[in-house]
Design a protein that fits this description.
Length: 331
């Protein structure tokens, strides 16, 4: 099967992947690896933009992220895995882009001020955090990606990358960098166990590394319709987190579940048990594969060494071209 172009995307190694990560990105990556030449990278430099003060779990988080990818179904025979910091050309290209990048472009980034407010307990008034879009552009343009899988809310971030490519090509009278196109994806959004956004910081996630028993206990602890006291009380599924999960995991039963809930024919406990059974169909095989990969750390290292080698070859090729058009290849 001929593949259609190059796709690049990455994840920060900041802790265990959860169902939100799976349906927000990973599920889509697994489909894309069959259609495109995919580079999927561990964005460890990006993790430092907000977590530079504590790197104690850095290496373990990288290993666990790779284990999650492999257990979920990413295949290193079909796509390229690499660790961002292992490809030193990323640091060089980021530096060169930063030399001509207007500060106004960074300050207007939609999430910059919002993140400063949300993460006000962290000292992230740093160049690294402000320059995040420049590093993101480096990752994408280094491999001359044709497409970047994004949701509509991420389009402004990708546009900065396109502007950086246009500016570089204009300044140095070249066509080194293509303008990557969005590969729009409709992420399936899940709330956390408590009804808030699913987030590790809220401790309300279902992790891909959770055992089946832990998953069931978490499901049974989920917040349901607060107005429903007795099993026979009419329910309001539109305000119930459990029902929002049923819409994803119980598609062929969701109409029946909604009807029975609204008419007091199914209690919250039975509803949660049904959901736990359906979620187990997806997560138990992933968990079992994960346990096997944890015993194969040497194989994981080999996968990353090989992926880094492939990524580095492309990065070296790009940087040779960059230095040539910038006329800084005098050695």
């Amino acid at each position: 099967m001929d593949k259609k172009g190059t796709v690049l995307s990455g994840m920060r190694p900041t802790g265990a992947l959860h169902l939100g990560n799976y349906f927000g990105a990973l599920e889509n990556w697994i489909r894309l690896q069959d259609k495109y030449n995919c580079y999927f990278f561990v964005a460890d430099y990006h993790a430092l933009t907000t977590g530079y003060e504590n790197t104690d779990d850095y290496k373990d988080n990288i290993t666990n992220l790779l284990v999650d990818w492999l257990a979920a179904g990413l295949d290193p025979e079909k796509c390229t895995f690499f660790v961002q910091s292992c490809i030193k050309e990323h640091a060089e290209l980021h530096l060169l882009f930063s030399m001509n990048l207007p500060l106004s472009w960074l300050y207007r980034c939609p999430t910059y001020k919002d993140q400063l407010t949300q993460l006000k307990d962290k000292n992230i008034a740093t160049y690294g955090f402000l320059g995040y879009p420049c590093l993101m552009a480096t990752d994408i343009l280094m491999y001359k990606a044709d497409f970047v899988p994004v949701g509509e809310d991420q389009l402004p971030h990708l546009e900065i990358t396109r502007e950086i490519a246009r500016r570089f090509n204009y300044l140095y009278k070249s066509e080194v960098f293509p303008e990557p196109q969005p590969l729009l994806t409709k992420a399936k959004v899940l709330p956390g166990l408590d009804g808030r956004k699913m987030s590790k910081s809220y401790n309300n996630t279902i992790a891909l590394s959770d055992s089946p028993d832990v998953v069931r206990k978490k499901i049974m602890s989920m917040v349901t319709d607060p107005a429903r006291i007795h099993k026979t009380d009419p329910g309001h599924p539109e305000v119930c987190s459990v029902f929002s999960y049923h819409k994803l995991f119980s598609e062929d039963q969701v109409a029946e579940i909604e009807h029975d809930c609204r008419n007091g024919k199914i209690g919250c406990v039975a509803c949660k048990k049904k959901l736990a059974d359906n979620i187990a169909e997806l997560l138990t095989p992933i968990y079992e594969r994960r346990q096997q990969w944890l015993k194969r750390t040497d194989d994981i290292k080999d996968i990353i060494i090989e992926g880094n080698k492939k990524a580095r070859m492309k990065a070296e090729e790009t940087m040779a071209e960059v230095r040539r058009v910038m006329k800084i290849d005098w050695i």
